[in-house]
Amino acid sequence: MAAALRLFGTKGYGAVGIREIALEAGISTAALYHYMRTKEDLLVALMVDRLRRIIAAGRAATAGLESPEKQLVGLVRVHIVSHGRYPETVIDQEVRSLSPQTRAGVVALRDEYEDLWRTVLDQGVAAGVFDVPGSRTARLALLEMCNGVVNWYRPGGPISLSQVADDFAELALALVRARRGGRQL
User: How high is the pLDDT of residue 92?
Assistant: First the structure.
């Protein structure tokens, strides 16, 4: 799976063959076919694995936090750290490569993850903490902002991943105009 993820990420799903994946993984094509029927099965397995992990991390990051602003900070930090440590764009970009039959399951998991964000944003609006014209637009803006980290963040660069997560959390609170007791959060 690591070999496929690396190759899909550098060359694109469509440009990679099953033999190339097997060679990169150091196994025979037959061994690879023993575990995965098709290249698409491998892509789906990668996507499902990563999406389940970030859903679990998002739930863990918001569990026990009562205020929507703290929950939003938790979601932003999880997303940034996840994308900074595992900078594959495959999960976000290769949904287009899936067949309609497999796409539905992956999109359902993506929607489940986005629902965590929607819930936090809706709760923040209902509590009068967030002031956004629409939680859908805010959710999409926040996710795209956070997804962009894979395009420029590099370990060992001038900004630590933790600092990027902190900075993005502040930007997220500003984006939703988070306020409590009349003061900006």
Answer: 79
